[in-house]
Amino acid sequence: MMMCKEATRLMSLRLEQPLTPREKLSLRFHLAMCGACRECDKQFTLLHRAGEKVRSDMEKSDQ
Amino acid sequence: MTTEAHTITDDHLSRMERLSSIRPRLLSFARMHLRDNAMAEDAVQEALMAAIEKDATFAGRSGYETWVFGILKYKILDIMRHQKRQGRLQPLEDESDDDAVDRQFQLNGRWNDASRPDRWGNPDTLLDNQHFWKVFDACMVALPDKIARVFSMRELMGLSTDEICEILEIKENNCWVILHRARLRLRQCIEEGWLKGDSR
Question: What's the complex ipTM?
Answer without folding.
Answer: 0.95
